[in-house]
Amino acid sequence: MASLADRVRGNGRIAAGLLLNLLVSICIVFLNKWIYVHYGFPNMSLTLVHFVVTWLGLYVCQKLDIFAPKSLPPSKLLLLALSFCGFVVFTNLSLQNNTIGTYQLAKAMTTPVIIVIQSLCYKKTFSTKIRLTLIPITLGVILNSYYDVKFNFLGTVFAALGVLVTSLYQVWVGAKQHELQVNSMQLLYYQAPMSSAMLLVAVPFFEPVFAEGGIFGPWSVSALLMVLLSGVIAFMVNLSIYWIIGNTSPVTYNMFGHFKFCITLFGGYVLFKDPLSVNQGLGMLCTLFGILAYTHFKLSEQEGSKSKLVQRP
Question: What InterPro entries does the database record attribute to this sequence (predicted)?
Answer without folding.
Answer: Sugar_P_trans_dom, TPT_transporter
